[in-house]
Design goal:
The chain is an alpha/beta fold. The protein has 2 domains: 131 residues, HAD superfamily/HAD-like (Rossmann fold), CATH 3.40.50; 97 residues, no CATH class. It is 45% helix and 10% strand. Strands 3-2-1-4-5-6 form a 6-stranded parallel beta sheet, with helices on both faces. β2, α7 and β3 form a beta-alpha-beta unit. α1 packs across α5. It is globular, with a radius of gyration of 19 Å. Belongs to the HAD-like hydrolase superfamily. MasA/MtnC family. GO terms for molecular function: 2,3-diketo-5-methylthiopentyl-1-phosphate enolase activity; 2-hydroxy-3-keto-5-methylthiopentenyl-1-phosphate phosphatase activity; acireductone synthase activity; magnesium ion binding. This is Enolase-phosphatase E1. Its cofactor is Mg(2+).
C-alpha cells in the first residue's frame, strides 16, 4: 500500500521550459552581482575549487571560452583558481545544467530574491494541486526530491501561479542525500521517511532515476509531459498527467 508520493519537479510537476527559460537565465544574469556580497564557507569554497580544477584539466572549449586571455595561460590552457573567477565559472555550469551543490545553493538564494520581489512566478502544471490534495485526503504524504536545493524547491511551490502549495508537502529532499540516479539515495529517503521502499511511489521524467528508485523496491511512474526529453525504451508505468 502506497503511503508516500515522492515527486520530482522539472518535467514532472513543473515544465522543463520554466526551469530552463526562466529560472536559469534569471540566475545567470544576476550571478556576478550577487556573488559580490556572498561569502562561501571554507568547505563550499574548496568544493568549488575542486570542481573548477577538474573542469580546467579537461580543457573543454566551452569552459575555456568563459575566461579572458589575461586569465588564461594560453600555452597550457590552464587557469589558476581564483575566487574572482567563480561568477564566470558558475555561468558556465548553468549553461551545462550541472547538478553541483554550491551552484544550486547560490541559485536558490538568487531565485528567492526574484520570487520575493515579484519578478518570478513559478509555473506548475494545472493538475498538480488537485493531485496533491487528493493524495492528502487519502492519507498519502507528498514529498519532493529534486536536484535543486531544498530552498529552491520550496520557493517553486510557495510562489506558483496557482497559489501557495506548500501545505500539500510534508518534506523535501535534494542531492544532499545523494544523486538521483543512485539507488543509495532512495534507500536513504525511505529510511528518513520511516517506510519500506514499496510503500513509496516515485514520480519522475527520467528513466535512469526510475531505475534507481525501482531497484530498491519503490513503485515508479514516469511522466510524459509536453517538452520532456524522449526516454529510452522501458517497462515503467507512463502517465501523461496526474
Amino acid at each position: 500500500m502506497v503511503k508516500h508520493n515522492l515527486l520530482d519537479i522539472e518535467g514532472t510537476t513543473a515544465p522543463i521550459a520554466f526551469v530552463h527559460q526562466v529560472l536559469f537565465p534569471y540566475a545567470k544574469k544576476r550571478m556576478e552581482e550577487f556573488l559580490k556580497g556572498y561569502q562561501f564557507s571554507e568547505v563550499k569554497l574548496k568544493e568549488v575549487q575542486i570542481e573548477f580544477e577538474k573542469d580546467c584539466s579537461i580543457r573543454e572549449e566551452g569552459f575555456l571560452s568563459r575566461f579572458t586571455k589575461a586569465e588564461l595561460k594560453t600555452k597550457t590552457k590552464v587557469l589558476d583558481f581564483d575566487s574572482n573567477l567563480i561568477p564566470s565559472y558558475f555561468e558556465y555550469l548553468i549553461e551545462k545544467d550541472r547538478k553541483f551543490g554550491p551552484l544550486k545553493e547560490v541559485q536558490g538564494k538568487i531565485w528567492k530574491e526574484g520570487y520575493e520581489s515579484g519578478e518570478i512566478k513559478s509555473t506548475v502544471y494545472s493538475d498538480v494541486p488537485g493531485f496533491l490534495k487528493n493524495a492528502q485526503d487519502l492519507g498519502i504524504q507528498n514529498h519532493v526530491y529534486s536536484s535543486g536545493s531544498v530552498e529552491a524547491q520550496i520557493l517553486i511551490y510557495q510562489y506558483s501561479e496557482l497559489g501557495d502549495l506548500r501545505e500539500y508537502f510534508t518534506s523535501y529532499f535534494d542531492t544532499a542525500v545523494g544523486g538521483k540516479r543512485e539507488k543509495e539515495s532512495y534507500e536513504k529517503i525511505a529510511n528518513q521517511l520511516g517506510s519500506a521502499p514499496n510503500e513509496i511511489r516515485f514520480f519522475t521524467d527520467i528513466v535512469e532515476e526510475a531505475e534507481a528508485a525501482s531497484s530498491v523496491g519503490m513503485e515508479v511512474v514516469i511522466l510524459n509531459r509536453p517538452g520532456n526529453i524522449p526516454q529510452k525504451p522501458h517497462s515503467f508505468l507512463i502517465w501523461d498527467h496526474f
